[in-house]
Design a protein that fits this description.
Elements: H1 2-15, E1 35-36, H2 42-45, E2 74-88, E3 93-111, E4 115-136, E5 143-166, E6 169-192, E7 195-196, E8 200-225, E9 228-237, E10 240-253, E11 259-275, E12 277-287, E13 291-301, E14 314-315, E15 318-327, E16 342-356, E17 359-374, E18 378-390, E19 398-412
Antiparallel strand pairs: 1-4, 2-3, 2-19, 3-4, 4-5, 5-6, 6-7, 6-8, 8-9, 8-10, 9-12, 10-11, 12-13, 13-15, 14-16, 15-16, 16-17, 17-18, 18-19
Length: about 425
C-alpha cells in the first residue's frame, strides 16, 4: 500500500502544476485548436509511433486498449519531452526550443492476463505561435504591423480497459475527457520601426474547451512457432465535439507593450469544434525477447470545416503511416549490459489535417530510441525524432525539428497478499 500511496501523491503533485507544459512552437498552430499531438509513449515514439498491433509485457499500450491484458504487472510510465524547431519562409528563419511534461500513464491488472485497466494524461493539441506581418494602410503610405500570438492547448485524461476473450482475441474500450483553452491575441501597430503610435490597438480572444471522446479496439495474436507470433490490431474512435465558451475583448498596448484591457465584445459565447472519427490498423511480427517488426495505418476523417461559422478553417481527412522495429541482442546476457538494451528505429508519415489557401501540408520523420533496463523488469526509455513539415513554396512555412523524450517505466507486482511459510 505504501507504493500505491507514493504514486498517488506523485500524481497529485504533478497535476497541481500546468499539466502539459510542453508546447510545440509553430506558426501552423494558429489553426483550430492547434497542433494535434501523437498519442505515443516514448517506447512507441522510438519505433515510428506504432503500436496498434504490438502487444508488450514491458510497456503500457495506450494506442490500442485491447492490448492492455498483456500488462500483467502494475506499470507506471512518465515522460519528459523537449524539442528544437527551425521555422523557415522564403525570406526569414527562426529557431526555437520548448520542453516539459509529455505524459503520465498507469496500468494495473484487475485479473492478470484477463483484465487490465489504465489511466493517464497526455496532450491532445498544442498552441504556441508568434507571427509578425507588415503591410501598408490602404490609400496611404503609412506602414502597419500586425502581431499574432497564441498559446494554450487541449489535455487528454483517459481511462482504458482491456479484456481477454480467449483464443488469442482481446477487446478494449477507451474513454477520454478533453479539457483546456486557446488564447489568441492580435495587435496592430501603426508607423515604422522608428516611430509607433503611442497606443497599439488589439483584440484578445480566449476559448475554454471541454469534451469527451469514446473509442475501442480489437486485437488478435496467433502463435506461428516457438516464441514467434503474428499480431493484428484495430482501433476506432467516434467523432465528437468540443464544447467551448469564448471571451473576446478589445485591448491596447502601451509603449512598454503592457496590455490595457478594453471593452468586452463577447462573453460566454458558445462554440463547437468538431473532432474527427479515427480508424486504424496495426500489424506486427515478433520473436519473444528478440525482435518485433510493426506497421500502423490510421485515418482521421475530419469535417471540411471543423470550427464554428465565425472561424471556418478548412480541413481534410488525414492519413498516418508508421513503420518500426525493436530488437534485443541477447535478453539473457550476463556478460554485457548493452546486449540487454532494447533498440528501436522507425519512420512516420502524416498528412496534416488543415488546408491553407488550398495547399496541403505533410510531415515526415525518422525515429529511433532505446530502453536501458534496470531492476529486472523496469527501464529508462529514450526516444528521438528528426522530422520536417511543410515547404517554403506557395508562401508556406517549412519546419525542421528534433524531438527528444526521456521516459521511465516502472513495473512491479502490487495488490498481492504476502504469504508466510
Amino acid at each position: 500500500m505504501r507504493k500505491i500511496s507514493q504514486s498517488i501523491v506523485l500524481l497529485l503533485v504533478l497535476c497541481s502544476h500546468s499539466l502539459m507544459a510542453q508546447h510545440t512552437f509553430s506558426p501552423y498552430t494558429i489553426n483550430g485548436i492547434g497542433d494535434i499531438s501523437d498519442m505515443s509513449l516514448s517506447n512507441q515514439l522510438g519505433m515510428g509511433e506504432v503500436g496498434i498491433g504490438s502487444p508488450s509485457f514491458w510497456h503500457i499500450n495506450n494506442l490500442n486498449p485491447a492490448l492492455l491484458p498483456y500488462n500483467t504487472l502494475t506499470s507506471f510510465q512518465m515522460g519528459l519531452g523537449a524539442e528544437s524547431r527551425t521555422v523557415s519562409s522564403q525570406t526569414q528563419t527562426q529557431k526555437s526550443g520548448t520542453g516539459g511534461l509529455r505524459y503520465m500513464a498507469f496500468a494495473f491488472p484487475i485479473m492478470p492476463a484477463k483484465w487490465t485497466s489504465s489511466i493517464g494524461f497526455l496532450p491532445y493539441s498544442s498552441v504556441n505561435y508568434n507571427v509578425i506581418a507588415n503591410d501598408i494602410v490602404e490609400g496611404t503610405t503609412t506602414p502597419v504591423t500586425f502581431n499574432f500570438k497564441g498559446n494554450g492547448g487541449i489535455t487528454q485524461a483517459y481511462f482504458s480497459n482491456g479484456v481477454t476473450l480467449g483464443k488469442g482475441l482481446t477487446i478494449g474500450v477507451k474513454t477520454s475527457f478533453l479539457f483546456g483553452f486557446v488564447e489568441k491575441e492580435t495587435t496592430t501597430f501603426l508607423g515604422d520601426e522608428d516611430f509607433f503610435a503611442p497606443l497599439a490597438s488589439g483584440l484578445f480572444e480566449k476559448t475554454d474547451y471541454r469534451g469527451f471522446k469514446l473509442g475501442g479496439g480489437l486485437a488478435y495474436r496467433k502463435k506461428i512457432s516457438d516464441k514467434k507470433y503474428f499480431n493484428l490490431g484495430m482501433i476506432f474512435e467516434r467523432a465528437s465535439d468540443l464544447n467551448g465558451t469564448s471571451l473576446v475583448r478589445l485591448q491596447r498596448k502601451s509603449g512598454s507593450n503592457t496590455p490595457i484591457p478594453g471593452d468586452t465584445l463577447i462573453n460566454n459565447q458558445k462554440e463547437i469544434f468538431s473532432l474527427p472519427s479515427e480508424l486504424g490498423f496495426g500489424f506486427s511480427y515478433e520473436k519473444l525477447n528478440a525482435y518485433t517488426i510493426s506497421m500502423d495505418i490510421k485515418r482521421q476523417s475530419w469535417k471540411q470545416f471543423a470550427e464554428s461559422e465565425s472561424n471556418s478553417q478548412e480541413y481534410r481527412s488525414a492519413l498516418t503511416v508508421g513503420l518500426g522495429m525493436e530488437f534485443i541482442p541477447d535478453y539473457t546476457s550476463v556478460s554485457s549490459y548493452f546486449k540487454r538494451i532494447r533498440y528501436r528505429f522507425g519512420f512516420n508519415y502524416q498528412q496534416v489535417p488543415y488546408v491553407i489557401n488550398g495547399n496541403t501540408i505533410n510531415d515526415f520523420g525518422i525515429n529511433f530510441g532505446w530502453t536501458l533496463p534496470f531492476n529486472t523488469v523496469s527501464g529508462l526509455d529514450l526516444a528521438f525524432k528528426l522530422g520536417q513539415r511543410g515547404t517554403k513554396s506557395n508562401d508556406l512555412i517549412r519546419e525542421r525539428y528534433f524531438k527528444f523524450v526521456l521516459g521511465a517505466t516502472i513495473n512491479d507486482k502490487w495488490f498481492e497478499r504476502r504469504k508466510y511459510y
